[in-house]
Amino acid sequence: MPLSPDEASRFAVLLESNAEPLAARWSELAGAGLRGRLSGAELLRQTRDLRSAFQQALSGGAADVNDEAAAELRAQLSELSSNRARQGFSATETAISVFALKEATLEVLGDADDAATLRDYVAFSAFVDRAALFTFDSYVRVREALISDQAEQLLELSTPVVKLWEGVVAVPLVGTLDSARAQVVMERLLQTLVDTGSPYAIIDITGVPAVDTQVAQHILKTVVAARLMGADCIISGIRPQIAQTIVALGIEFGDIATKASLADALRYVLGKTGKRPVR
Predict the structure, then answer these.
(1) Which of 34, 90, 169, 241 registers the highest number of CB atoms within 10 A of its CB?
(2) d(CA 91, CA 96)
(3) Integer distance in angstroms from the first to the last C-alpha of the chain?
């Protein structure tokens, strides 16, 4: 049930008249669930800012967290969620920090037992609940974005393109090659071919545990893309088990050169260019 204008006004006055003791008690209650992982000074600063934002929203007649008058409150809650997500706190710990305002406010009200005060508190409690849920949702969005960024960084780290020789680059693949990773491999290889002007690229699959039809298609697409850039590709790391699987699946690599090891592939390329590797 949304707060009425009178209820919002009364709690705005309460938050203002008890500003410091309320913020201090709120900080104490919120800190109990964080097990000392946030300094007391930082936690007190956060509760002071949030108390001020709650007061501003209620003074403006906000009946719900999504009202225009609660814009600053939403901004503060979003900042809290973002900081806590990056600091490694859980969504529950973050939301509980907001829920603690209810207990702190109830202690300020004391032993009030008249019906009007209790109705006011129930309405205010519901307002805080919605604020905590907003915080929870904001946390989840930030956390998902962080996980997505980390996954993208891991993809880039797991697909290095290295220069083996003048005019020869290699992509040593390790692990499963799915569609997302195959796209990263293709983009990084093509960009390296442009940057170095290399006419040869070796795709080494020694670290790929298994090659099925999907993995083979990803590799073939990368080879075709490299050829369009004017570079020839050699596939190395064809172990006996992988060779048997490729034959059993009926996968055709056509005129693409394949070698058992990265060293064999490099020797092959140097032979094509008329150069000899240093022994």
Answers:
(1) 169
(2) 9
(3) 81
